[in-house]
Amino acid sequence: MLRNQIDKIRLLFHKDRGSYLCFYEILGFFPRNIQIYQQALLHKSISIRSEKGRPLNNERLEFLGDAILDAIVGDIVYKHFEGRREGFLTNTRSKIVQRETLNKLAVEIGLDKLVKYSSRSSSHNSYMYGNAFEAFVGAIYLDQGYDRCKWFMEEKIFKHYIDLDKMSRKEVNFKSKLIEWSQKNKMEVSFELIKQLLDKDYNPMFHTEIRIEGVSAGTGTGYSKKESQQNAAQIALRKIKGDETFKTEIQAAKNQRHTEEIIAEGIAAQDTAITERLSETDSHPASLDN
């Protein structure tokens, strides 16, 4: 409280007080290093560089904010749902930190009006605001630490925009989302039941592996095949989002499959042509001279 009053007095003499007040309305406190928050709202399509020539955008802050959000939301969910199973807690946290939810939160608090991006970029139609929300949390962490991040999420986000009990009952079909992504990107996806086992109470459990273009994308365990598929699909979607090496690997596998299909189609076409010629020869035998 005292710190905020001191920051407020300093603000009266600051040339950029308009930006400070704008962030105060969102945060509930004054930034100490406003440049970090401004960078959190710079999409990579802007192509701004620092004095040293390095790109200035929010991607690194997004990476940091993603990790901080997972920890804070996990903490909040764990304490709210006392005694619930790990799978339930994981699913509830995932519903909160998924891109659709973060996009909506960014719009609710007004971040969407502050994000800077190139009009040529089409990414603002998908998850740009949710990514900016993560970057914004990363900025809070760097500027004022974990406890302030947690206060922001509890007092400015959960209290106003997230009903935990309602959110926990919301159905999120990760398998459908993965299939939708695969169809959009023309990727082959398979769900393989690789193991059945019993837990310590002798309840049957299922272990599913998802392969994208033949490459392992994630495994999931559940008390039904459906639950194991959903858990595996959730892991696969995270991998698609954040693992560049994995994305390169499945793209290479897709390209290889496409090449093999073209070759196979060519061979099949040649075989068909040869067969047709032989049929024509058989139906019109050459006449023999007497």
Q: Tell me the major beta sheet.
A: 3 strands, antiparallel
Low-confidence stretches: none
Output the strand order for the largest sheet: 3-4-5
Structural class: mainly alpha
| Helix and strand pattern | HHHEEHHHHHHHEEEHH
Number of strands: 5
Counted by DSSP, the helix tally is 12
Strand content: 5-15%
CATH hierarchy: architecture of the largest domain: Orthogonal Bundle
Residues in helix, %: 55-70%
**Rg calc:** 27 Å
Instruction: Classify the fold: give the CATH topology of the largest domain.
Output: Ribonuclease iii, N-terminal Endonuclease Domain, Chain A
Average predicted confidence as pLDDT: 86
Based on Cα principal axes, name the global outline.
flat
CATH class categorisation of the largest domain: Mainly Alpha
GO molecular function: double-stranded RNA binding; metal ion binding; ribonuclease III activity; rRNA binding
Domain DRBM: 173-242
Keywords: Cytoplasm, Endonuclease, Hydrolase, Magnesium, Metal-binding, mRNA processing, Nuclease, RNA-binding, rRNA processing, rRNA-binding, tRNA processing
Pfam families: dsrm (PF00035), Ribonucleas_3_3 (PF14622)
